[in-house]
């Protein structure tokens, strides 16, 4: 262990390297390995209908897969407007086929929109992003080579010093009164 530290981590070692830790969130969708393994649009639509059927059933809404499949026939999973099309198909199914009240339909649609961003990529359905709507990427500064540490640190701005969250005077609750003998007595302000 000491040899490992001296070889790879010790500042004076010629083979010194930086240690980097990369974390991947569990909720990120797995990337498609290749186009061959990507499911067909029919399989994607069937998977989406199955997930939506389970979602509606979990919310105590009766689901008929045949009716839900009919509502999803005009939905094109490769279009730019996939999310509004899916929402429209679900709301039409809930209002006309499942006879769900409008208030409950709105609540279910709101929950579904939050879940849809994670579910669609897991089914292999790509959500198109308008690059025009994205903010411009920030300019990345180049690598800074520090040749003189003292000069580099002298050029840095000063950071703000620590400030108490509450003023210390708020914690004072007693006054000290000095009597003639020089002895201090504490008196409460209350």
What does this protein look like?
The protein is mainly α. The protein has helices at 2-9, 41-58, 65-71, 82-97, 102-122, 149-155, and strands at 174-178, 184-188. The protein has 6 helices and 2 strands, in the order ααααααββ. It has a two-stranded antiparallel ribbon with strand order 1-2. The chain is extended, with a radius of gyration of 32 Å.
**Helix fraction by DSSP (H/I, runs of at least 4):** 40-55%
Q: Tell me the Rg in angstroms.
A: 32 Å
Order of helices and strands: HHHHHHEE
Widest beta sheet: strand line-up? 1-2
* Shape field: extended
Structural class: mainly alpha
Q: Report the portion of residues in β strands.
A: 5-15%
Overall pLDDT: 79
List how many beta strands DSSP finds: 2
In whole angstroms, the N-to-C terminal distance is: 62 Å
The biggest sheet, with number of strands, parallel, antiparallel or mixed sense and barrel status, is: 2 strands, antiparallel
Our count of helices gives: 6
Return residue spans where pLDDT drops below 50 for at least 5 consecutive residues: none
């Amino acid at each position: 262990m000491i040899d490992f530290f001296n070889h790879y981590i010790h500042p004076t070692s010629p083979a010194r390297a930086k240690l980097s830790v990369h974390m991947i969130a569990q909720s990120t969708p797995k990337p498609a390995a290749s186009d061959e393994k990507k499911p067909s649009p029919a399989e994607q639509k069937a998977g989406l209908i199955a997930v939506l059927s389970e979602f509606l059933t979990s919310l105590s809404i009766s689901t008929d897969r045949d009716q839900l499949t009919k509502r999803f026939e005009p939905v094109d999973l490769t279009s730019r407007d996939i999310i509004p099309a899916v929402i429209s198909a679900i709301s039409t199914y809930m209002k006309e086929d499942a006879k769900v009240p409008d208030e409950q339909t709105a609540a279910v649609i709101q929950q579904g929109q939050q879940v849809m961003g994670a579910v669609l990529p897991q089914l292999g359905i790509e959500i198109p992003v308008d690059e025009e709507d994205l903010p411009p990427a920030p300019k990345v500064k180049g690598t800074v080579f520090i040749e003189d540490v003292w000069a580099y640190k002298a050029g840095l701005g000063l950071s703000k010093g620590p400030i108490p969250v509450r003023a210390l005077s708020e914690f004072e609750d007693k006054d000290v009164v000095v009597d003639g003998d020089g002895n201090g007595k504490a008196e409460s302000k209350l």
